[in-house]
Design goal:
The chain is mainly alpha-helical. The protein has helices spanning about 15-35, 40-50, 60-65, 70-90. Helix 1 crosses helix 2 and helix 1 (about 15-35) crosses helix 4.
């Protein structure tokens, strides 16, 4: 068996790229919303296909989203989701409220 399929590849994005990805996602989201599109559906379409036609040119959103690789956008989205999920699952502190 080919050993290259047996080893785990480590993927990493530095903090600056992550911050840029977050800003772009939020800007594109707002532009899509302003134009009356479903931001969720349009972003999913773009992330799956890579076709920038899923993103409006309003507020330069189409150009912005192409400045960041799709894998960086996905990493930001998944990281945010997992951070939020961990916050929800935190056990309550003795004498305190849940998640504090």
């Amino acid at each position: 068996m080919d050993e290259s399929h047996e080893n785990t590849v480590i993927f990493s994005v530095d903090g600056e790229e992550e911050n840029q990805a977050r800003k772009i996602i939020l800007t594109v989201y707002q532009a899509l919303k302003e134009k009356g599109y479903s931001p969720l559906n349009q972003l999913i379409g773009y992330l799956i296909s890579g076709d920038p036609a899923y993103v409006t040119s309003h507020c330069n959103a189409r150009s912005l989203i192409r400045q960041v690789e799709r894998d960086e956008l996905l990493e930001e989205i998944v990281s945010y989701y997992l951070d939020q999920a961990r916050e929800i699952k935190k056990p309550p502190r003795p004498g305190g409220r849940s998640g504090e």
